[in-house]
Amino acid sequence: MPKLTVVILFGGRSSEHSISCATAGGVLGAIDRERYDVIPVGVTRDGAFTLQPDDADLFALRPEQLPEVADNGTRVLWPESATTRELRVAEDSGIRSLGEVDVVFPILHGPYGEDGTVQGLLELTGLPYVGNGVLASSVGMDKHFTKTVLEAAGIDVAPWITVDPRGWQRDNDLWRRRAQALGLPVFVKPARAGSSVGVTKVSEWDELDAALEVAFAEDSKALIEQAVPGREVECAVLSGRDGAEPRVSVAGEIIVTGRDFYDFEAKYLDDTVVQLVCPADLAEGELAEMQRVAARAFEAIGGSGLARVDFFYTGDRFVVNELNTMPGFTPISMFPKCWIASGMTYPELIDELIALGLETVR
């Protein structure tokens, strides 16, 4: 059987650039080289598409030096129309062909990659790709619209308000009253960012303005969200094959000690303050309900390919915190950990995602 050619697309312009690189490093190190030829395409922080070395270790996540895409002067040229799948690269010696591409694996986190923009580019060029389409990616990236869609589907979400800098300044008293109606503590979050970048826990109202300033540095709108006391649990979702129901993994749990919440440093830089427990200690009925809600949330946004659904479990209900349409994908990330605990190996998970990408009709 001939090999498939897979573009691993990573990096990008968002604040999650390094996390995307680390995810790509995990995939480059595990993908089955007997089944796939790999073309690593790195997007620099300035948005240039470059041909990168096929070297997993180059993009490993190290706290002392986070990985990033170096601008090596190459420029990857996407197909000139939907009638071809040829990828080319411009370099010092001229333009050369990289051959025909079978599928693109866009391992991009945050804006300009996970939000439907790159998915739109790939659809314009006619290239099959792994993961969610334009609409689901866009909805999943924007926490305000994720909550709006899920709430309309009858799924529990934390109460919230969404503000922008102009509205906050113009109608400050009104928005403060609405925020205070949520009660303390609250979390202030950029609407369109991930990895807890720009997130602040507010325990006193005089901390609110500073928290919003941090959030507005990442995005033009921010959520003020009621804190939900409970266990932080997650599960992973895969599309069903041939139109079947979504598949949902066992649950994982995040246990944080010594910090107010699961922030960027706890996620990626200091593993002494967090435990990732998988499978989580849930009764059979609790797990079944969590899986039901996760599948329903995935369907509500029109999901395809994969997602990770994050919950707060209060003891009597599962409240969806976030729906991540391109979750972290290193071998130690929760998405693969949940599938590994469900009986699927990391390379098998990569195979399944590629197969789903080739199967999905856009």
Notes on the structure:
The protein is globular, with a radius of gyration of 20 Å. 30% of the residues lie in helices and 26% in strands. The strands form 4 sheets. It has a 5-stranded antiparallel beta sheet. It has 11 helices and 16 strands. The protein has helices at 17-30, 117-125, 134-141, 143-152, 165-170, 172-180, 208-216, 264-268, 284-300, 334-341, 346-359; strands at 4-11, 36-43, 49-51, 75-77, 86-91, 94-100, 103-107, 160-163, 186-190, 200-202, 222-226, 231-238, 247-256, 274-277, 306-313, 318-324. It has 362 residues and is of the alpha+beta class.
List keywords for this structure.
16 strands; five-stranded antiparallel beta sheet; Rossmann fold; Dna Ligase, domain 1; 30% helix; alpha+beta; 3 domains; 362 residues; globular
* SSE series: EHEEEEEEHHHEHHEEHEEEHEHEEHH
**Separate helix tally:** 11
For the sheet with most strands, the description reads: 5 strands, antiparallel
Classify the beta-strand content into a percent band: 25-35%
Provide a quick synopsis of the model.
The protein is an alpha+beta fold. It has helices at residues 17-30, 117-125, 134-141, 143-152, 165-170, 172-180, 208-216, 264-268, 284-300, 334-341, 346-359; strands at 4-11, 36-43, 49-51, 75-77, 86-91, 94-100, 103-107, 160-163, 186-190, 200-202, 222-226, 231-238, 247-256, 274-277, 306-313, 318-324.
